[in-house]
Amino acid sequence: MYKLILALRYLYRRRVSYFALAAVALCVFIVVVVMTVMTGLVSDFKKGNHNFTGDCVVGTESLVGFPYYEDFGRILERVDFVEGVSPVIKSYALVNAGGSQQGGGVEIIGIDPVRHSRATGFGQALHYHRGDASKTFEPMGDANLAGCVVGVDLWLERSSKGKHYYDPNPAATAISVTCFPLTAKGALAKAGTDLVNTKTFYFSDCSQSGLARVDGSTVYLPFEDAQALCGMSGPVSRVSWIHIKFKPNVKLEEGCRQVRLLWAKFCEQMRGKDNAEILAQVSVQSWKEHRREFIAAMEKEQTMLTVMFGLVGLTTVFIVFVVFYMIVSHKTKDIGILKSVGASGGDVVAVFLGFAAMLGVAGSAVGVAGGMWFLRDINALEGWLFERFGFQLWDRTIYAIGEIPHRMDLTMVLVVVGCAVLVCIIGAFLPSVRAAQARPVETLQVSQL
Amino acid sequence: MSKDEFIIEAQGIYKSYRMGAAEVRVLKGADIAVRRGEFVAIVGASGSGKSTLLHILGALDKPDKGVVRFEERDLDGMSGREMNRYRNKTVGFVFQFYHLLDELSVLENVILPAMVPVGVIRWLSVRGCVRRRGRELLEAVGLGERAAHKPYQLSGGERQRAAIARALVNEPKLLLADEPTGNLDSATGNGILELLERLNRAGQTIVMVTHDERVARRAGRIITLADGRIK
Fold first, then answer.
1. Chain A with chain B: Cβ pairs closer than 8 A
2. Cα distance from B1 to chain A (closest Cα, Å)?
3. Do residue B61 and residue A2 have CB atoms under 8 angstroms apart?
4. Distance between CA A51 and CA A49 in Å, rounded?
5. A126 partner at 20 to 30 Å CA-CA among A299, A308, B109, B169?
């Protein structure tokens, strides 16, 4: 009991303890704030990729695509673990908007909007037709025109606050889309001078997936039109991908494993049919595997930050070590007194390690409280800094970031607090052991007073 | 007198310290034996090894050579745990500079030896009893009203009385006092000596170290230490 009392008294009666406490609090504050923001950004990015992809995809990066997708789609729709299936055409095209003569290269995605909304978060990414995907490709001015959905950053300017200003009555602007159709063998489908397929669509909506690359380079077209433009229609029609959404209780890995089994069996059945050799190029991937190259970059940044803050943690160990070295040096008399009344070396270590643990807990509490307060107002603070000084953490005209993430993850906070306490104990360990080894008779000498 | 009546005896104690490159031989075969209930004063000039001998008797230090027996038990044969228990239960120390912990109140300082061997859970059950004993001791040394004060709020004499109360809290068989009046004025020192005499009359065995002959005369027996040996 005396160990607890002494540790507590050392904590609040020694002024030097407050410096160590401030170091721990500052370190915890910084780590909590940066990890919350960074984890939030990575989490939002992953969520955006998940919404964009669905749970699982079957397909190929090849522009040729793969055949018999309808047969496999029917198989998928019959199994009990699948909630939505959406065949998708994916290719590249040149677009001219509003009669401009200068075209730009974009990615085109051909979808059935209703099926695609069931398999992915597409329906929620729309602006004008959110919640009613069936009319996605109906321009507001004239529903009979062939509509297209344009990535929001391709269509609208982003304000300095990261907002897009939507026209409440958007004009059905003509958008001409030009593709090179390919045969199943990968050759140009049209010989001679007329190599390309061109069709004019009319603006019907914007899509905001939250993924900068997608929103800045993608045009969604009706499935059949995209298929025709890319040369994938015909007796053995083809698609690029099949996006799949699993039922809520299905685990991602298990669902993907089941789809792989179904696909392998399906390939066996299709053997010998026209263009069936293309099926060998098709892969089954979870959304994480499919978007790995984008997610990995973000995760790498997060790992780098974690390593950097690990180094900050080492600095804290050193600060705590120095503070404890000072405290122990000033407390040699106490150590002698404790030993003279029967305390063991282990008891002395326990007093100082208890002190260190309390310091860690108190410092962490202050750091977490400060972090909570700061994160609660981080967006307001950034807004104020932007209005007063033009400072922004991320330039919203460039980065597809809305609010700065500010929701603390309890697990992360507990891990940070645990690490802070551990760091304090590590920092205090050597001085404590040194204190425990001190001979009482030396520490009680008159010269030590 | 039977040998069994010696509560503590030390034979052929040698102790030396290094001071830089030089080795200072403090004790050169000192012998001492104290009977149960005795009040013994060890006197000697400054640097004669009085305090070193007292520390060795109290297991705060180890001799280079020689044997210390407490109730026929050789201290050298004790484990670390037994040695801690010896310092906690068997002997009580009173130092010249009081050595109270600044972070604790006077009462907490007094009951510190009683708290040392007790874990948190057990402390909850014995807390009331120990605090009562601490208050009784403080009353006995005339500090009943000072229990909640901090050591720096007490005078030198009051601090020494608190240190004596601390030394007695576990009812030790042997009280070791190192220059208990050395840092006090004569009136205050006299009060401390009266307290020690009162304790001795009640049966407490006391070994006191002092360089002051007048103080030593208050003890029942005087042992003189000179040139590292008992004369």
1. 73
2. 32
3. no
4. 5
5. A299
Distance, in Å, from the CA atom of A329 to the CA atom of A162, rounded to the nearest integer, reads: 56
**In chain B, what are the domain boundaries?**
37-64+79-224
Residue given tokens 């522009």 in the structure block: A63
Closest CA to B208 of B31, B41, B38: B41
Q: Is B103 within 8 Å of chain A by CB?
A: yes
- In tens, the pLDDT along A175-223 reads 999 888 887 777 777 766 677 788 999 999 999 988 888 888 899 999 9
Q: What dotted CATH number matches B37-64+79-224?
A: 3.40.50.300
What's the start-to-end Cα distance of chain B, in Å? 20
Give me the torsion for CA of A301, A306, A311, A314, rounded to 10°: 180
Collect all residues from A whose CB is shorter than 8 A from any CB in B. Answer: 1-2, 4-6, 9-10, 13, 333-334, 336-345, 347, 439-441, 444, 446, 449
Q: What is the pTM for the complete model shown? A: 0.72
Counting Cβ atoms within 10 Å, is residue B173 exposed (0-12), middle (13-18) or buried (19+)?
Answer: middle
> Could you read off the pLDDT of A135-191 as tens digits, one per residue?
999 988 787 888 999 998 888 887 777 778 888 888 888 899 988 888 777 777 776
DSSP for B77-115 reads: G--HHHHHHIIIIIEEEE-TT----TTS-HHHHHHHHHH
Q: Across the interface, which of B89, B96, B115 has its CB nearest the CB of A2?
A: B115
Interatomic CA distance for residues B97 and B184, integer angstroms: 10
- Partners of A438 on chain B (C-beta within 8 Å) are none
Cβ contacts of A340 on chain B, cutoff 8 Å: 58, 60, 87, 93, 95, 99
**Rounded distance between C-alpha atoms, residue B164 and residue B141, angstroms:** 8
Contact predicate A57/A290, CB 8 Å: yes
Which amino acid is it at A194?
Answer: D
Cα–Cα distance list, B137 to A134, B156, B166 (Å)? 90, 18, 8
In A152-227, which ranges are E strands? 174-179, 197-207, 218-222
End-to-end C-alpha distance for chain A, whole angstroms: 26
CA atoms within 13 A on the CB side of A124: 12
Name beta bridge partners: A164.
A158
B134 and chain A in contact, CB less than 8 A: no
Q: Which residue ranges make up each domain of chain A?
A: 2-46+295-448, 61-281
Shortest distance between the Cα of A4 and any Cα of chain B, in A, equals: 9
Per-residue pLDDT of B59-117, as tens digits, reads 888 899 999 998 888 888 888 889 899 999 999 988 888 889 988 999 999 999 999 88
Please check whether residue B17 touches A, CB under 8 A: no
**Closest CA in chain A for residue B62:** A441
Question: Which of B84, B95, B116 is opposite residue A2, by nearest beta carbon?
Answer: B116
The answer to whether A29 and A365 have CB atoms below 8 angstroms apart is no
